[in-house]
Design brief:
Elements lengths: L1 E5 L4 E6 L10 H12 L6 E6 L3 E3 L4 H5 L7 H10 L4 E6 L2 E3 L3 H6 L2 E4 L4 E3 L13 H9 L1 H8 L5 E2 H7 L4 E2 L5 H14 L2 H10 L2
Parallel strand pairs: 2-3, 3-5, 4-6, 5-7, 6-8, 7-10
Antiparallel strand pairs: 1-2, 8-9
Helix pairs in contact: 1-3, 5-6
Length: 203
């Protein structure tokens, strides 16, 4: 349910492929994603995307009730993505919800389809968000809007997400990976140490 393409250019494309379940994430999928991210330190750029009309609905509901909602595998995954030296891009083919938000927040850049919505109903479900998610979200959209999402339970449209700074661009759904590839092109062509140096200077 996780597809990985490793190209000679140094580009890795990681695709959530469980469209029939809105790409909801099981523990096995999260573990595989974490292992991929932990092994991607030689990648020059990594794109995360999904199949269908939803990037990810978050945790698989059955597994969430069985304990996945509070598993440390979410933090393992987002920490591994954040630690990557290459350019990381979340190419959001659709809605981003719940715990899957951490994957996108850990990326350097986020682009999204026009129909995408963004919500994180963790408080309503009776859980705390993963530890790093509120700080990363607040760094992008500010403390008040972070509370609007996490405590107010509000959904953001793609247009609001762009205006708030949660995403960098809105692009046609069928083009999200193509646009992400175009954004990554200069990084793939650069000397790795220069690309890494710029990334470190942008913190």
């Amino acid at each position: 349910m996780i597809d990985l393409i490793q190209e000679d250019s140094g580009l890795w494309v990681v695709t959530l492929n469980r469209a029939q379940k809105a790409n909801s994430l099981t523990e096995a999928m999260l573990t595989e994603l974490a292992e991929i991210a932990e092994s991607a330190h030689q990648a020059r750029a990594v794109i995360f995307t999904g199949t269908g009309k939803v990037f990810s609905a978050g945790a698989d509901l059955d597994e969430a009730r069985a304990g996945l909602a509070t598993s440390d595998v979410w933090e393992r995954l987002s920490s591994a993505i954040a630690a990557l030296p290459g350019l990381t891009i979340a190419a959001l083919n659709g809605t981003l919800a719940g715990g899957a938000t951490g994957m996108a927040l850990a990326c350097d850049l986020r682009i999204a389809a026009p129909h995408a919505t963004f919500f994180y109903p963790v408080m309503k479900l009776g859980f705390l968000p993963q530890p790093s998610d509120p700080a990363r979200l607040s760094a992008l959209i500010g403390p008040a809007r972070t509370k609007l999402m996490l405590m107010g339970g509000q959904k953001f449209t793609a247009e609001e997400a762009l205006r708030f700074g949660l995403i960098e661009r809105i692009v046609p759904a069928q083009d999200v990976v193509h646009v992400a590839r175009a954004i990554a092109a200069d990084t793939l062509a650069a000397q790795p140490k220069i690309a890494l140096g710029i990334k470190q200077l942008c913190v």
